[in-house]
Every structure is written in structure tokens, then in C-alpha cells.
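User: Predict YiiD C-terminal domain-containing protein's structure from this.
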Amino acid sequence: MSELAPLLEKTLHEEIPLTREIGIQVVHATTQRVQLSAPLSPNINHKCTAFGGSLYAVAVLAGWSMVFAQLHAAGIHAHIVIQDAKIDYLLPVVETINAECRVNGETDFAHCLKLLARKGRGRIELPVQIITAQGIAVRFIGNYVIHT
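Assistant:
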């Protein structure tokens, strides 16, 4: 677990109470990759698979966590909100929910942080995947707004 992971998990549990209820844990947290997990049992539906709303929540939170990691690394305290998103449910999830958000470069965040500094508001689009033993179960793209 990286140094950022305990801080991120504490922040999630204090600022977003739902994260405690669905059992969110921060598995990995850097400015390049955030991985969250949540157990199946509090997120199960009547088909004994992960509830779609829980999958959506974990995906949103993985992107939110990436924004948090980037802001933390830049020494910036700001508000993070999801503006809109697109989600594709590809496979049922019958195990621990594992969501991952990866960033392959700093350019989008650099531009976003410049806008935040100049206008008090920035925007970033982030991809998240929920991965199972069978493959990619969920593809998610979220647009996050950062404001002071």
C-alpha cells in the first residue's frame, strides 16, 4: 500500500459515508494508478451478482480517487464532483469488485490544474475498468469537475 492509500481511504470514509457501507478499500493509490475494491456481500443483488448501482458507485469513486491523488500531489485542496458519466456493463461480477483508474500521462491533468488555478474550476475525463477473473466486466468514463 502506498503512502497515499491510507489517507485516501480515510478521506473516502469520512467525506463519502457510502464508501464505509459498501466496504470500499484502497488497494493502490498513486498519481498513475488507483485501485479500489469492495466485497461482494454488501453489494449483492437478487441474482447473486454485484448490483449495478454498486458497480457504478465503485467506478465513480475510483475516478474521484484519481483526481484526489493528483490534487494531493500538487498540494491543492479543492472540491471534486462527478459531472456526467457513461458506463457499459459487459460481464456479471460474482467476486470482489476491483476497480482501476489509470492515467498514462500528466498532460490532461496539467491542463486541468492550469484552468483550476486561472478560473477556479477545472474538468477532467477519466476511464475506469472493473476487472474480474473472466475479464473486463465494466467500462466507465467519468467527467469530473474540480472547483475551489
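The helical segments are 4-15, 18-21, 52-74, 107-119.
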